Amino acid sequence: MTRLPEALHWKGEPTAWVRTTRPGQRLHSFLEGLSVDADGTAWMVDVPHGRILRVTPDGQWDVAFAYDGEPHGLCRLTDDAWVIADYRRGLLRLDLAEGRLSTLCAGVNTENFRGLSDLCRGPDGSIWFTDSGRSSLSDPTGRLFRRWPDGRLDLVLPNVPYPNGVVVGGSFVYLAATRANAVWRLLADAPDPLLPMVGTYVQLSGGLGPDGLAMDAQGRLAVAHAQAGTVWLFDAIGFPLLRIRTPGGLWTTSVAFSPDGRFLMIVEAQAGALHRVDLEQAQLELALAEEPIA
Question: Is the pTM of the predicted complex or chain greater than 0.70?
Fold first, then answer.
């Protein structure tokens, strides 16, 4: 659909995030945190350079806000207010009309977060967010939190190998366990007083693992498969419908459905590209390809 224009490419020296996660490289951007408005306007974050980017339906880009931080996830609260999952600064609120950034919470139990990764807003207004830090299979201590509208904070899971994308669908929460190359599922309101029961909903292979997640009104789950140049679309019971491959790069980081559910928007960070897939057309072509030849 469109790519980050040359005029918005970062020209300065590599930031600390780039030096740590991409040693020896110079990145013009690293795009994540896709969100799509009812009018088709797309929003995303540029992780290492602290930018909130806006893309109009006709492909015009601009920097809506910039600050000293490392934003990884973005979700809307109101018309002019957003919540940001910032790896370095915690959970932030951005009042865009006023250009004001404030901290919702920077840690828990007097300790800072390890490094926030992604977030979503549940139907009850609570914010689910992931605290991945540098966790992995060798150190499965990433965490999933839930922040209630009144400010209460619950630690839901303390033992995830790099928790990343998260989405609430129906009574379930779907969580990308990136370093386990899997999507986990748990009840949003579990009766267990200690830890909710968690199962593997989707097991992937190849690439790095699932990154951003999105779910539509039909219960279809879209999964951005990082370092695989792929987005998977699963039906409401977890079986694959489509494999979508992104041209030009392997860093598929974030996905979002259009408000009418027809299009799937995909961020590919290696090329700084925003792709759009017509799901109706894709599924029609797949159905035709699978028809037996008379």
Answer: yes
